Each structure stands twice: as structure tokens, then as C-alpha cells.
């Protein structure tokens, strides 16, 4: 009996050590008050997004929950108003699978909201489910939709600077390898889905990097954030029903709660003093180095140009619209995918040369020492 108790004690002790050192993330202790500021959080009706919105609301921000489902979005807004004591939490419809929906959201937001201080791209999918689209749905929802939304909201972000853009990525970006000849090809089968998901997360990291370069000097800073291993709806959404009862206890033991997953995105949105690290990738509330594919500036710019075409952006809608047009990338799709009129059932040119100030910014960012948390 004593041996059994000792074994149980050792197992519990080992679990506590693993949980607090590898699973549970450090808390964000950023700005205490956000009164007078406005934040948009996509996919905020559940999971990490909902916990992120809750913390922003508790700090006094006006928070817009940008969600696909009106029923779930309005229910989440009600819950957050009750829990935070902040009545400035509202729902606005957004389906990132539809470029028409993204444009409609931006038009409605810009016509009704005078401020935008924080934009957090949290919404995402890990599988196409039963949906079969004539384009890469994972790239559309996880990257192209957020890319377009950011561009359309840039005027408001600029007028409210200093402001921030946070793109929720994943450690899966380390497995990503972008193929610009097949960037928007439909995804079929679970193997392709795994690859497409990793590619979309790599696109998130490269997007934050290039966005920081494009917005140098505007007062807008940008960050890619890894929430860590999180026990959220995204984890179990596409798992077969018979397998879920077996995975739920395991997920509860070894994955972070959504509140823990929200800490790094919140850190990137709120932490003072990280402005010089704009464009970098953060995990566990500190900056983290990324593999060569995720810090390839040529690939980042090439993705930027390809994304503009896939998003259907016109000449005057880009972040760099005041600059000379860039030459066409022969390896990217020749024309943007036409916008869809209905929501989905489920939710760059290597020849161009950046100017000297952008090159210097990249050199400084790469040389910047990692910021340690207190």
C-alpha cells in the first residue's frame, strides 16, 4: 500500500511540474485600463477568442465580437456584458470564408465605429469538414480573410495610432511550406488538410512580418501570437464523435484552458514596450525565434502580393497604396478569386526591392534581443 501511495504521489507531482512548466502559460499583465479604446476580436463567441474579449472588456474597452453565427455571437456578447460588467460589448456578423462578408463587415464597422485601437485575428479552422469549395478554404479563413479585413480597416487603425494588430498563429507554422503555384487550390483529404493548416499558420507569421514592414512609421505595430496547446472547440470540432469521449479527459489534463490560451494574444495586444518587436512571433508571453521559412522576407513579400490578388484588393486599397505598383509575380495566381455571395457552411514579387528604411527596420528587428517576461 505504501508503495502504491508513493507511486501515486510521484505521478501527481510529475503532472503538477509538467502542467505548470509546460502546459499552463504565464499570465498577461499588460495595460490596466482600456477605457476609451475599441477592440475587434474575430471568432470571439467561444474558446480563446471569447476569453480574449472578456479580458479586454474587463479593462474597459469597447469590444466588437466579429463572428459568423449571429445566434452564438449575440449570446456571447450577452455573457461577456454580464461577466465583465461592461455594456460596451457588441456583436457584428463576419464570415471569413466569404470575401463579400469581410467587405460588408468593414463597411458596417467603419460607418458605425469612430475608433479601432486593437484588431485581433483569432478566428480560424483546422479542417474543411464536409465543405468542398473551389478554393483553399483553410487559407481563405485563416489568412486571406484576415489579410483583407486588415487592409480595409487600416484607415481607422492609422487615425487611432498607436494601435496594434495581432494574428493568432500556431507552432504548426514550423511544418508549413508555401507552394505559390498551388496556393489557392482546393484541399481534399485529411493529409492535404494537415499540410494546408500548417501552411496557413506559416502565412500568419509571414503576414505579421511583412505587415510590420509595410506599416513602418505609421504607429501601427503587428505581432503573430501562438496561444499554446489549448483545449478549445477547435481541438475537438472535427474529431469523430465516437473518439471525443476518449479525448476529452486527456485534453483536460494536458491542454490549456481557453483563458490560458488567451494570454499571449493579450500580451501582444497590451504589453507596453514591445513596439520595437513589431513583426515578430510570440509564445508564452515572450518573443520566440522562428525557422528560416518563417523569417524569409522575400517569401513574405511574395505572399503579400499573392494575397492581394486572392483578396481582390484594388490599387487604392493596399497598405502601401501610396507607393509605386509592384511588378506582377509570374508564379502567383493571375487574378483574384471572385467574391462569394453566400457564407460558407463551415466555418509577391521577388523582383521588387524594399526601400532603405524598411531594410534597416528588418536588420534592427533581427538584432533585437529577446524580451524576457518579469
Automatic annotation (TrEMBL):
Annotated keywords: NAD, NADP, Oxidoreductase, Secreted, Signal
Highest taxon of source: Eukaryota
Primary location group: secreted
One GO molecular-function entry: oxidoreductase activity
CDD domains: retinol-DH_like_SDR_c_like
Record localization: Secreted
Biased composition (Polar residues): 341-355
Record InterPro entries: NAD(P)-bd_dom_sf, SDR_fam
Keyword Ion transport: no
GO cellular component, one term: extracellular region
Transmembrane segments: none
Family stated for the protein in its record: Belongs to the short-chain dehydrogenases/reductases (SDR) family.
Function: Putative oxidoreductase.
Protein name, UniProt field: Dehydrogenase/reductase SDR family member 13
Species name: Delphinapterus leucas (Beluga whale)
Amino acid at each position: 500500500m505504501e508503495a502504491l501511495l508513493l507511486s501515486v504521489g510521484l505521478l501527481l507531482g510529475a503532472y503538477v511540474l509538467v502542467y505548470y512548466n509546460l502546459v499552463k502559460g504565464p499570465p498577461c499583465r499588460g495595460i490596466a485600463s482600456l477605457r476609451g479604446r475599441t477592440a475587434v476580436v474575430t471568432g470571439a463567441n467561444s474558446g480563446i477568442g471569447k476569453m480574449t474579449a472578456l479580458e479586454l472588456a474587463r479593462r474597459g474597452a469597447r469590444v466588437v465580437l466579429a463572428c459568423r453565427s449571429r445566434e452564438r455571437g449575440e449570446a456571447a456578447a450577452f455573457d461577456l456584458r454580464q461577466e465583465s460588467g461592461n455594456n460596451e460589448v457588441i456583436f457584428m456578423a463576419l464570415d471569413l470564408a466569404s470575401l463579400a462578408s469581410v467587405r460588408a463587415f468593414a463597411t458596417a464597422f467603419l460607418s458605425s465605429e469612430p475608433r479601432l485601437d486593437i484588431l485581433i485575428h483569432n478566428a480560424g479552422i483546422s479542417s474543411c469538414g464536409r465543405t468542398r469549395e473551389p478554393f483553399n478554404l483553410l487559407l481563405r479563413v485563416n489568412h486571406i480573410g484576415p489579410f483583407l479585413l486588415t487592409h480595409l480597416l487600416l484607415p481607422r487603425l492609422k487615425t487611432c495610432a498607436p494601435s496594434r494588430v495581432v494574428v493568432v498563429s500556431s507552432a504548426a507554422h514550423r511544418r508549413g511550406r508555401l507552394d505559390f503555384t498551388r496556393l489557392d487550390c482546393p484541399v481534399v483529404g485529411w493529409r492535404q488538410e494537415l499540410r494546408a493548416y500548417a501552411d496557413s499558420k506559416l502565412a500568419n507569421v509571414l503576414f505579421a512580418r511583412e505587415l510590420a514592414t509595410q506599416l513602418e512609421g505609421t504607429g501601427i505595430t503587428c505581432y503573430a501570437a501562438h496561444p499554446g496547446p489549448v483545449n478549445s472547440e477547435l481541438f475537438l470540432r472535427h474529431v469523430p464523435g465516437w473518439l471525443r469521449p476518449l479525448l476529452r479527459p486527456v485534453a483536460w489534463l494536458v491542454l490549456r484552458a481557453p483563458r490560458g490560451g488567451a494570454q499571449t494574444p493579450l500580451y501582444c495586444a497590451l504589453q507596453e514596450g514591445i513596439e520595437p518587436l513589431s513583426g515578430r512571433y510570440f509564445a508564452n508571453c515572450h518573443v520566440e525565434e522562428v525557422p528560416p521559412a518563417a523569417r524569409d522576407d522575400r517569401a513574405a513579400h511574395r505572399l503579400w502580393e499573392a494575397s492581394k490578388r486572392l483578396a481582390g484588393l484594388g490599387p487604392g486599397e493596399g497598405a502601401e497604396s501610396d507607393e509605386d505598383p509592384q511588378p506582377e509575380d509570374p508564379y502567383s495566381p493571375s487574378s483574384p478569386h471572385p467574391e462569394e455571395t453566400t457564407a460558407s457552411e463551415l466555418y509577391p514579387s521577388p523582383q521588387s526591392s524594399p526601400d532603405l528604411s524598411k531594410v534597416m527596420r528588418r536588420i534592427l528587428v533581427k538584432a533585437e534581443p529577446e524580451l524576457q517576461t518579469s
